[in-house]
Amino acid sequence: MKGMSWKYILHTALLALTLCALPALAGPDNVGLGRGDDTPPTISTANQIINTYARVTAPLAPGDTAIQIGASTGAADPIAAGDLLVVIQMTGIVPEPPRGDTTAITIDTNQPVGRWEFVRVTTVAGSTVNLTAPLLYSYAANVTQVVRVPEYLNLTIPAARSLAPSMWDGSTGGVLAFLVSGTLMTSGGIPALNAAGRGFRSGQPVEDASGDVGCTGLDEAPPKGAQKGEGIAFTRYGSSVTGRGHVTTGGGGGVCDSSGGGGGAHVGGGGLGGNSNDGSRAVGGTGGLGLTYTSSSKFNHLLMGGGGGAGHSSGGTAAGGRGGGIIFARVGAISGAGSMSANGDPGGNASGQDGSSGGGGGGTIYLRVAAAATCGNITAIGGNGGSSNSGFDVGPGGAGGGGRIIFQKGSGTCALPTFAVNTGNAGVQANSSSPLGAFYGAQPGTAGATATLTGGFPVLPAPVVVTPANGSSTNNTTLTYMGTLAQPFPTGTTVSVIVDGVTVGSATPDAAGNWSFTPTTPLAPDSHTVSAVAVNTTEGVQSVSSNTNMFIVDTTPPAAPVVVTPANGSLTNDNTPDYTGTAAEPGSTVTVIVDGTLVGTTTANASGNWNFTPTISLADGAHPVSATARDAAGNTSPGSNTNTFIVDATPPAAPVVVTPANGSRTNDNTPDYTGTAEPGSTVTVIVDGTPVGTTTANASGNWNFTPTTPLADGAHPVSATARDAAGNTSFGSNTNRFTVDTRPPGAPLMSAPPAFVNTPTPILGGTAEADSTVTVFLDGTEAGTATANVRGAWSFTPATGLTDGVQQVHATAMDAAGNVSPVSEARTFVVDTVEPGAPAVTVPGDLVNARKPIIVGTAEPSSIVTVSLDGIIVGKTMANSAGDWAAIPTTELVEGSHQVTATAADEAGNMGSASPTRSFKVDVSKPAAPVLSTLGEFINTQGPIISGTAEAESTVTVSLDGVVVGTAIVRASGGWDFPTTALLDGPHQVTATSMDAAGNVSPVSAPISFGVDTLAPAAPEITATAGSIKDLSLNFTGRAEAESTVTVLVDGEVAGIAVASASGGWSFPSPALNEGSHQITATAADLAKNISSLSKPFDFTIDSLAPAEPQVTAPGEFATSRRPTIRGTAERESTVEVWLNGTKVDEVDVDESEVWMFTPSSDLAVGKHVVSTIARDKAGNESQRVDHVFAVQQSHYGWGCSSASASPVTWALLTLALALRRRRLRSP
């Protein structure tokens, strides 16, 4: 096989598959609208992919239950158990037509390309997908894919969003498939379902720089021929498949020079590509060949549109248009204006002198709606041919042929006017002077096809196979199959009958849904199965399979049965005797024949045994019986043996019982039974209603029977019956009643006297057998007898009094027959005639806080104590073995004084004297809650004394922070104190209750809260600025612990206090202070009176005296500089304000030498200037202002009268004026 292409190998395999494919078992389409169990996706983009695809890697044959697949592509959802898949052969027509062949291609049911069926996944193991049911068709490897089909309940596609298949890549993609059992919601705008240009691949341009012309070949080697578009011939697409001849539905490529590519096809054929550039030769690529679907294949074959061929080019990149893909959707209803497209893509437009490419063929839209449908446009239009705008005579592309639409709805506005399957437009070239016009030989394709079905998409009901019934047998080899089909079902629905997995025929159900089918080919005797599916070829759907009934064809009759009873020559008294026997074939029907007449039928069990009891009585006399057997298939055996038997149904006379005589008594518990009966009859003796044995009457009619089982003592009836030889039984005999008595009476029962008695002659008594004589023994000595009455009761009183102490009595009984009983159990009792001592009352004490106080005391052990309160008996109780007793009154006592007494009665009933009286008081009033004395908000001791008031002489229980810490006794004055142990610093709360002498507890007191704080606060801070201060009275400020009390000390003496705020700030206005140095310190006392350490000292000086006036020492009266340095003297470390001509110009510091100076920052005008100065010391005290006048001289001055400068006379006068001014300023 060297040199043989793999495509050729695949072609051969495809042909073999087609020739060897088995006929389909049944139609594939039975999933209806799906199960609705996929979660609807959120559709967030255009062309969103929802299908998962996988290439089938091994050939498939009918009956296969597993598929080998390659890697998955498309959506992220992996193929998994429970998924619905569609198996579809995408390409690979068999046989492949020659290139350019114009013979019509018919897609019929035997053509594998486009064939599809649904399968359901059970499991996925690696690359193996296991199926729930076997495949129905054969499929070729590598050209077949599986597509996961989502099953939605409802699906919404928003505006500007859409679903699309993956691009067909040669092995997977191109198919958008889904089911919606509810409603599909769409919106306008872009197509909601878009398979446009996602089908068969287009021809790609081949660069031809050879300059060759005149090419004409249907298969023209590249680069003289451009690539053909892809069609349904799998082996004829690729970079080496070039030339103008089309390949099935794929358009041919252009050839040299610059002819156009042919259009792809589907149902409509593709258009011819435009003419060549070299002489306008009609050598454009031929259009793809249109397909014809037969009526039987229109539903079970789906194909994509063919790709357009590429135009011939010398360097262009204009590829042909891809064919439209496949949209497969079945939905309950469609709402909205969304459109759907499976259009072919347009061919590529060429530039320069290149030919343009052909458009792609329209794809397939399979859209079936069960109810109402509204929609936008639904199109499977061929793509336009490519055009050229270069102005050269170059071939435009041919148009793609129209696709295919299959549409069905129940109602709604979605209808034919919105459907389009027309061809695209042929391309044009821009040379308006071309004699061939704009199309330049390019042609449109032809239109596709639209098929609409009447009524909504049906989901056919599954038929029911009624006969043959499951598990039945028949001897009819051409039996009639019958069943029902539930209404409603669409017109044209038939029922296909499948026997042993093979469809043997079909039947048309009547209006009521009943159907039947009788085959002409007989079945072999064996077990068989029958099932059925409903098929509607008009709708292209079928139902799920019916029930499967197993039945057996059996044409062999069974062997003759055997009659066993009645036995031949036997005698019976049953005029409806059971007929029994055996049959060779278990489960066969046995017919019983008596006196030559059929009397009934019965069925042989699994062991072959049968039994039949007739309902009509036979007359006395002889009768013959025989039988035949019929198996489950209806085959009848030969006749059985014949048994003759005699019926005798007349009973004998009743026998007579003679002994034991009626009313007799006997101590023989196996007495003889005797009597008379019909001679030779069998007598059954019945005692106490139960047969005890049989005997035979002798020739004289006498009979005798002695039992072996003894009778129980008591009365017994005896009777008898007689049965003759035919088995007839007489009426019952007379009944004799007799009594058997062989037992002594039972030992008497002693019930008196009680355990203690207070009399020396107590009554002794009990029970014994009725009417028996009872002998009484006291302390082992017979004391006398008594007779039991009819109820068995007896009593006996000793004639001689008994002494105090323990006594014992027992007895025996003798019945009327003289049988003596065993000795009774001894009864022990005590004779006690002495009264007990008086009891004692020990509790309650003098005071109780209960209205039903427990009363406790002592008395004679086991005596009954009667308790009296305030003279009234309030109860009884028993002293225990130690003599202790207790009682609780049942009625509440009032508050106040009460008296209790008690008496005791011993076990013999002797009553003692009363106890001494015990007095007590009932007090149930709670004392008032204690009142706690406050400790203040804070304390600085860890062992405070808790004090308060409460009811005098009560006990106070103190709780600290919710925990009881101790008690205190309240003084007669009502006051109390409780010292605590060391407490932790922090908040605490104290409560208390008081308990009075009676034990009554008061309510809880109102709590008091306090804080324990034993830590001294931090030393306060003084925040005022240190240094010289001119005020005699100051406001000192600082920080300390929040809310603490700050004590301020000036020069070591307390000057006053201040309270820190919640934020810790404090201030204190001081009294007037003397001039000079001072020091402030402070301490802080917190709320608990803890005092801090002394703060850091704050030193300052009080200086309220103004400094001496500053002196200006320069310039003198005249300054020769326009920026003279002004200097002077003043108090050391003071600050001097400098003013020029009434304006403050600066502040300067006085140095350690008491000198200051200032230089103006700008030139001064020539003439007089006044500098004023004020000194301010560190405390802020200011001196008197001092003025100093000086004059700024001009460096050169003239003497003319017109001069603007001052004359010498003027300067002399100015000098004089300054001197006079200084004199005035210094005068006092």
Report Rg.
Answer: 67 Å
Shape: flat
Q: How many strands appear in the DSSP assignment?
A: 84
Percent helix among the residues?
A: under 10%
> Could you say which structural class the secondary elements and strand pairing correspond to?
mainly beta
Helix tally equals 2
Unreliably modeled segments: 1-27, 1196-1228
Portion of residues in beta strands equals 35-45%
Mean pLDDT: 89
Q: Whole-Å distance between the termini? A: 144 Å
Major beta sheet summary: 7 strands, parallel
Pfam family, one: Big_13
Biased composition (Polar residues): 662-682
Signal peptide: 1-26
Protein name: Large repetitive protein
Produce a short descriptive summary.
InterPro entries: AgmC-like_N (IPR058184), Big_13 (IPR044016), Ig-like_fold (IPR013783). By secondary structure, the protein is mainly β. Helices cover 3% and strands 36% of the residues.
Task: Draw up the topology in text.
Blueprint lengths: L5 H15 L31 E5 L9 E9 L9 E6 L15 E3 L8 E10 L2 E4 L12 E5 L2 E2 L2 E2 L18 E11 L7 E2 L96 E3 L32 E10 L4 E2 L22 E6 L8 E2 L24 E5 L10 E2 L28 E5 L10 E4 L4 E3 L6 E4 L9 E6 L2 E6 L6 E4 L8 E11 L4 E2 L6 E5 L8 E4 L5 E2 L6 E4 L6 E6 L2 E7 L5 E4 L8 E10 L12 E5 L8 E4 L5 E2 L6 E4 L5 E6 L2 E7 L5 E4 L8 E10 L12 E5 L8 E4 L3 E2 L6 E4 L5 E6 L2 E7 L5 E4 L8 E10 L12 E5 L8 E4 L3 E2 L6 E4 L5 E6 L2 E7 L5 E4 L8 E10 L12 E5 L8 E2 L5 E2 L5 E5 L5 E6 L2 E7 L5 E5 L6 E10 L12 E5 L8 E2 L4 E3 L5 E5 L5 E6 L2 E7 L5 E5 L6 E10 L12 E5 L8 E4 L3 E2 L6 E4 ...
Parallel strand pairs: 4-12, 8-10, 9-10, 10-13, 11-14, 13-15, 14-16, 15-17, 16-18, 17-19, 21-28, 30-36, 38-44, 46-52, 54-60, 62-68, 70-76, 78-84
Antiparallel strand pairs: 1-2, 1-7, 2-6, 3-5, 3-7, 5-6, 20-22, 22-25, 23-24, 23-26, 26-27, 26-28, 29-31, 31-34, 32-33, 32-35, 35-36, 37-39, 39-42, 40-41, 40-43, 43-44, 45-47, 47-50, 48-49, 48-51, 51-52, 53-55, 55-58, 56-57, 56-59, 59-60, 61-63, 63-66, 64-65, 64-67, 67-68, 69-71, 71-74, 72-73, ...
